[in-house]
Structure formats: C-alpha cells, structure tokens
Design a protein that fits this description.
Blueprint: H1 3-12, E1 14-20, H2 24-35, E2 40-43, E3 59-60, H3 64-68, H4 72-88, E4 94-103, H5 110-124, E5 133-135, H6 137-143, E6 152-162, H7 165-178, E7 182-184, E8 187-195, E9 198-206, E10 212-222, H8 228-234, E11 243-254, E12 263-267, E13 273-279, E14 282-286, E15 290-291, H9 303-316, E16 329-338, E17 353-356, E18 362-365, H10 372-387, H11 411-426, H12 432-442, H13 446-455, H14 461-476, H15 482-489, H16 492-495, H17 497-502, H18 504-515, H19 519-535
Parallel strand pairs: 1-2, 1-10, 2-7, 4-12, 10-18
Antiparallel strand pairs: 3-6, 4-6, 5-6, 8-9, 9-10, 11-14, 11-15, 11-16, 12-13, 13-14, 17-18
Helix pairs in contact: 2-7, 2-10, 4-5, 11-12, 13-14, 14-15, 14-18, 18-19
The structure holds flavin-adenine dinucleotide (FAD).
Flavin-adenine dinucleotide is lined by residues 20-26, 43-46, 50-53, 55-59, 61, 188-189, 223-227, 231, 248, 287, 333-336, 367-370.
C-alpha cells in the first residue's frame, strides 16, 4: 500500500466503485468488490479505522442484548458470523468465554436467561462443546470471586470472541489492496460530481498536502459511519431516515486493579449492562450509551462517563475500590444508529440499512463490527444489480479469504508460533508476553517484525521492538503519522500507555527520518502525540 502511488492512480483512472470511509464497513466493501472483479477505490479522511472502528468494545459478538429486543435475524446473522471471522483470522479473533452473573431483582432471571442463551447458541449454530452452561451461585462465585457475593443468585458462561477492531479493519484494508483496490488515507471527500444528475465522482482534499483533486467512479458508496448524514447533506439527500449518534466510553485500568478471571458481562443498577474484559496487562471496562450531538472529530471521555463506569465496577466488585487515579487510558466512540422516534439510546436497533438517493449515492449506516462481511455483501450485490449486471463477475467469496497473517490451521498453531517467538524474543531480553501480544495482533506477520528486530537492535529491547512495529506500520500499512502507529496499528495508546509514554521521542524521530520531516514538523507531531497521551487520561467536564 503505497500512498503517493495510489494518489497518482486515483487522480488518473476511473473506477467502477468508489467507497468513502475507511472504517470496517468501507474496508469490507472494498475487499468484497475488488475480489469480485470491480475496479475499486476507497478514500478515508483521517487514518483508516479513525472513527468507530477503533473505539468499540472489540468483541466479535452475537449481541446477547439484542435478543431482549427480539432482533432474532440480527442475532442469527452476527452470531453466525463470529465463527467465520475467527476462521479468517484465528490469531486476531480469539474465543473468549463470557461470564454472565445473575441477580435476584435485576436482569432476566435464571430461567429466562437459560432459555435466552440456548436460543442465542441455536441461532448462531454454536458447536455443542461451546454452548452455554448455566451455573449455580457457588459455581459463579468460583468463576469470579471478586463479585459481590450476597447479590449473586447464579450465572451462565457462554462463548464470544475478542478482537482488536482497528487491526481487523487494517487487515481487511490490506487484503482489499492486495485484491486490487486503490486505497488512501487522509483524503477527505468534500463534494460530489454529477453527470445528468447522477453522482459520477467526488472532489477530494489531500489533508497532507492540502491539494484538491477529483476521482471518477460509476457508483459512489458512502460508508462514513457517524458522518453518513454529512455526506447526504452535501448530496442534498438527507431525507427520510436519519442517523442517531450515541456515545460509548471505555476505561482501561491495570489488570491487578481489576483482576477478573475472564471477560464478564454484568448488569448495573440502571438496567444497562457493562463488560469488563481482561487483556494482558490491563482490564478494560465499558460501555456507556448516551445521545451525542457534539464534535465528531474529537469525541472525548467526560468525568461523568468515567465516574459512571467506576461506580458500576465498585458496585459489582466491591473489593476493587477503583478510583480515577487507576485509569491509565480510555477511548470514546460513536454508534452510527438509525433514528427511531421515541426510542432511547440503548433501545435503538443495531441493524444496518442501505439508503439510495435519487442521484445514485448509496449510503450504508448502522450495523456492527461483527457483521461487516454480510453488510459488504449486501452493498456489493446492490452495486452489481444497479450497474454491472451484464458483467460476469464472481459471487461474494470473502467467507473463504484468510486475512493477512491469519493462515493458521487451528488455534494450536497460533500457540505454537507464540512459543517459537517467545524463544527468539527471550534471546533479546524481551518477556514472553511480548510474543503473545505480537502474535495476537499480527499473526504470521510477526515473523517479519521479529526478523527486523533481530537485524536492528540497539540494546534497548523494549524500544527496539516498538520501532520494528513502527517500521512494519510504515512499510506495509500506510501509517503516515506516529499517532496512526501508536493508536490504530499497535494499540499502544490504549493498552500500554506507560510503555509508549517512555518511547514517544524515538518513535517520532523514526517517523521524522522516514518521512524527511523538518524540525518544525517533527515538533508538531511530537505535540500531537503528547496531547493524545494526555487526552485519554484527563477527562472533560
Ligand atoms: C462504544 C461502542 C462499542 C461497540 N462495540 C462493538 C463490539 O464490541 N462489537 C461489534 O461488532 N460492534 C461494536 N460496535 C459497533 C461497531 O464498532 C460499528 O458498527 C463499526 O465500527 C462502524 O464502522 P463504520 O466503518 O461504519 O464507521 P467508522 O469506523 O466510523 O468509519 C467511518 C469512516 O469514514 C470516515 N469519513 C467520514 N467522513 C469522510 C469524508 N468526507 N471523506 C472520507 N472519509 C470520511 C471517517 O473518518 C471514519 O474513519 C460498537 C460501537 C461503539 C460506539
């Protein structure tokens, strides 16, 4: 993925399909379309996965909650997709058992939950050995001794998957590029071009150079998540259904401050449900769900958001005694939901919908990270039907397309690679958990990172490994700023704030050398990283 070469080609060529938005929805559409043989382009105004697709709960899940809302079709689709996405990237979409404690006067109660989970497993076709297990009160407390024991009446354990949303998006984008899609980040669509009142292209501003150019395409798809209505306004087609944005916040604490034994999904007294998910050296907790009308480019965690989550944890795990001082990072994202009159934030459906304007703009909104493949299939089917029916193109084949780094026959092969790399990293004085992190984020691509590390080590192993990952991000993943790397390629901003805080300068220096920045540019980039490191721990009013 070479950004400058792609931009030159975007200016010159015309495309069957141009996708606006480089989150998971856009990336999924680009992959499906390019794989079916459409000449495909994608532009993203920030970095890939800048929006909601790097700020979710990072679960590939069926959405147990949606069963309560009787959304059977949605649960069946996303539930069934879990095992498929796991097969496509077994290192990155990892099985995770979820504990669901049950309480006397909250939630659905023991019998309804038992039936509900049975339906959940049945709809998603979960294998017998992974199906839900109901637990007695004592068993539940054995699973999770930190729970407030006098409240718990029983529990259940059921199967979900954990992922890294931004890396999943980047891997899909890389595969789309490999299949022929031309993709570019920091390219903002500012207007549409029309021929006979039909959209036939877009005007784009390159945010790196401030230059503007146009791209020609037979069909344009608006996959801009929370920004979908902004493009519909430019297209003068924001009629009928509209978006309803709700904000969700997660906070991150060191694992030892909330050492839950497995992921847990618990009721809080206001009737909502919250996840606490252990991930290596940290546990993350979320999410909130509040209406949002503020600045979409800069969605922040407020003191109230953080307080709500801390309070929920302390109510459920009284010995935790979490305080603001325990929070070492956080993120806030927007759900691009479709407005339904009279429904509150958490009652709104998570279903995706496609809107078509009179001028031929196709917009897709709603949906889940988990359902990206099926959403893409629906959009590309519609694109084919509208304009390319006569072409003898292949049907959707993404169910068989292993994502980069994901060619493992089974999960035990993932473990084998971890063990092999732990040995190589150990020889460089790096701890075994580095190998686990590396393999879970990059799969077999970890081998390239470790080769690079062995060839370029300076005696500061922790920093050397970060720089080897930065090299990979610049060389193969179109990272163009240190923040692209720290936030969306490596997750360090969220999951290892103390470590990345120590190594900001060498990372910025490395990018400055690679991109030949002036001292002034280098200082600006350093300031941006410093501000980002502050913003995830200093909350707004
Ligand atoms: C708090 C929270 C938790 C969630 N948890 C889960 C979960 O655990 N599992 C799950 O399956 N789903 C989850 N979801 C839902 C899921 O994250 C989203 O449905 C999904 O990420 C949306 O992806 P998207 O590509 O549609 O939007 P985004 O990821 O927001 O992508 C849209 C992109 O369009 C770009 N863009 C905007 N305007 C322009 C323009 N003019 N030109 C070019 N580009 C533009 C933006 O910069 C952005 O990167 C969660 C959502 C939230 C908010």
């Amino acid at each position: 993925m070479n950004r400058s070469a792609n931009i030159e080609a975007l200016k010159k060529e015309s495309f069957d399909l141009l996708i606006v938005g480089g989150g998971i929805t856009g990336a999924g559409i680009a992959l499906d379309a390019a794989a079916r043989g459409l000449k495909t382009a994608l532009v993203e105004k920030n970095d890939f996965a800048f929006g909601t697709s790097s700020r979710s709960t990072k679960l590939i899940h069926g959405g147990l909650r949606y069963l309560k809302q009787l959304e059977f079709a949605l649960v069946k689709e996303v539930g069934s997709e879990r095992a498929i996405v796991h097969r496509l990237a077994p290192h990155l979409v990892v099985p995770e058992k979820m504990l669901l404690p049950l309480y006397e006067k909250r939630g659905l109660g023991y019998w309804l939950t038992s039936v509900g989970l049975k339906i959940y497993d049945w709809l998603a076709g979960v294998k017998a050995e992974d199906q839900r297990k109901m637990l007695t009160r004592l068993q539940t407390l054995n699973y999770e001794p930190l729970l407030k024991s006098d409240d718990v009446r029983g529990g259940a354990i059921y199967a979900e998957y954990r992922t890294d949303d931004a890396r999943l998006t980047i891997e899909i984008m890389k595969l789309a590029a490999h299949k022929g899609a031309l993709v570019g980040n920091y390219l903002s669509v500012t207007d549409f071009h029309y021929t006979n009142n039909q959209v036939t292209g877009v005007q784009v501003t390159d945010l790196m150079t401030k230059g503007s150019f146009s791209i020609k395409a037979t069909i344009v798809v608006n996959a801009t998540g929370p920004w979908v209505d902004e493009l519909r306004v430019i297209n003068q087609s924001r009629q009928g259904k509209q978006l309803h944005l709700t904000k969700g916040v997660h906070i991150v604490v060191p694992f030892h401050r909330l050492p839950v034994r497995q992921a847990i999904y618990f009721d809080v007294p206001d009737g909502r449900m919250i996840f606490a998910i252990p991930r290596g050296r940290i546990t993350y907790i979320g999410t909130t769900d509040t209406d949002y009308t503020g600045d979409k480019e800069n969605v922040t965690t407020t003191l109230d958001d953080a307080h709500y989550l801390i309070h929920a944890v302390n109510e459920t795990f009284p010995s935790a005694l979490l305080t603001f001082a325990d929070i070492e990072s956080s993120w806030a994202g927007l759900r691009p939901l479709i407005h339904e009159e009279g429904k509150s934030a958490s009652e709104l459906s998570r279903k995706d919908e496609i809107f078509e304007s009179d001028t031929g703009l196709i917009s897709i909104a709603g949906g889940k990270l988990t359902g990206y493949r099926k959403m893409a299939e629906r959009v590309v089917d519609r694109v084919m039907e509208l304009k390319f029916e006569e072409r003898n193109v292949r049907p959707c084949e993404t169910e068989q397309m292993i994502l980069p780094g994901g060619d493992f026959k089974s999960y035990s092969e993932v473990k084998k690679l971890e063990a092999e790399l732990a040995g190589r990293l150990g020889a460089l004085n790096l701890r075994g958990n580095e190998a686990t992190n590396l393999v879970h984020l990059y799969g077999r691509q970890s081998l390239q990172i470790v080769d690079r590390l062995e060839a370029h080590h300076t005696g500061q192993p922790e920093c050397d490994l970060i720089l080897a990952k930065a090299w990979f991000a610049i060389t193969f993943e179109m990272a163009v700023t240190p923040l692209d790397f720290i936030t969306r390629r490596s997750g360090l901003l969220y999951f290892n704030h103390p470590k990345i805080s120590r190594w900001v300068q060498p990372v910025v220096d490395y990018f400055a050398t690679e991109f030949r920045w002036s001292e002034e540019e280098k200082e600006q980039q350093f300031d941006q990283v410093t501000k980002a490191l502050q913003s995830v721990i200093h909350f707004t009013q």
